[in-house]
Known about the structure:
By secondary structure, this protein is an alpha+beta fold. It contains 17 helices and 17 strands. Mean pLDDT is about 75; it is low at about 1-10, about 490-500 and about 540-549.
Amino acid sequence: MIYKNLFRNNEKVLMSFKWTFQIAIAVFIIWVFFHPQTKLHSIIAISLLLIFYVLQSYVENRALLKFINEKQADHEELISAICNSSQDLIVYKDFNGKYLYCNQVFLDTVNKTIEEIKGKNEADFFSTKEASVLNKISRRVLKGKVIRKKIKMENTQNIYDITATPLVLTKGVFGALIIAKDITQEEKLKSEVEDKEQMFRSVLQGMPIATYLKDLNGNVTYENKMAMDFLGLSDSDNANKWHYKEKRADEISNEDSEIINECKCISREKQITLKNNDKRWFKVTKCPIINHEKKVIGICSVARDIDAEKTAAEQRETYVATLTHDLKTPTIAQIKALDLLLNDHMGPLNNEQKELLTLTKDSCNFMFEMLSTLLSTYKYENGDYALNIENCNIISLAEESINELEAMLKEKNATIHIHTEGIQFNTECDRMQIKRVLTNILGNAISYAYDNTQIDVTIRQDENGISFEAKNQSAYINPETMNNLFKKYVSHAAKFNKVGVGLGLYLSKQIIDAHDGEIYARSFEDNHNIFGFILPIVNETTKISQSNS
Length: 549
């Protein structure tokens, strides 16, 4: 082996030199043995030969030991380089549980040097409790078992995930390799997430509304107590099997697909049959659950019991409908009686009397219109109103409405100018209802316009349909108010010290929606506002096409 140190890069030269040297020694011994002048006995020659081979073996063994030590040093250096590049704690122990090697991360953790570590065990630099746990792990590993365990160190309060494995040769276990990964931050984060999740679930459990979560396959993954009643579940039920799922499978599947594919929330009122067969109204709101990659990973559903609200609303609407119907009859009677007096059927009246009766009649007409609006609103909301479709000219209807509002124009000293863009302006609609919309829009335009100003009415016909716009000069309406103008019982009349119940624009929207049209409002900071609507053009050709489809 000594020759390998000299000629390790050329194996043929090595072997040639070795055999040449050995042959030379053998020739020398034979020469000594057979030389006639030599008096050495053959035993001496054999002894020299044995001494030579013993000497050669000794030299080779020393060279082999040196070579092994060099290789071991190289291996340790390589292992040290690999281990020290790791952020984990790495330890190598012998079969007696003594430390033979550890990386720099471990040394920094225990604040020791490698010389202080070698040949020691856990009790030399860990607390009694920690040393007991680590020593128990070592003993089990040296018996041939692989151990995976989490421990918390008292001195640093760090948490480590320890993996310990035995080092095995054919003759058995000769040591243990222990790797400890610092998972303190992961455990803290996990604990925070678990705390937040528990807090979230506690909040959901305490909410007075049914709340449940679903995955992308439509399976319920979480539900609070009220949701269990809503879904028709008991504590032993499978949350994926709702009692009404089979009855409404298509509806639920379509809603879930809409939420997932379009990534939007939906809110609908539904009458749900609960597990006790009690039917109740719920407002169900469903929203997508989106992760940090902005991908939908589930659905959050909230169902609020609105059965009491529904019942109260129905009772209110019934009361309003009955009241308005009962009040219309005496109001009409009052108007007709006033007409008789104003037309001198009961005798001549002076100018003061006629003026007083005219004001009274105007008040009765206002009340009659308000009652008609309330009753029409009720009918539209309940689907009881049937449109009386006929061919109408929008310009003619607008002119009729303007004539009926002449008194308001004089009071404001305002004028209306009509602009037209198109040819026919005819469409199929409910004449009386569209006139109600025109009157409402024009009445608002006049009522809120500045005094001594002009109101511009534009009627346009194009491929989109027939549009009507009324533009006046009036105060700017903020966006929040604009967004609510067409809602029920919403009015901005109080801002201008005017009387209004907030149903005129709401009813107008119901009428235009019933005609498959669109109503809109726009406000501009230079103090002018536009209210208008668009009606689709319906003629004989359109009706034939619709009936064929």
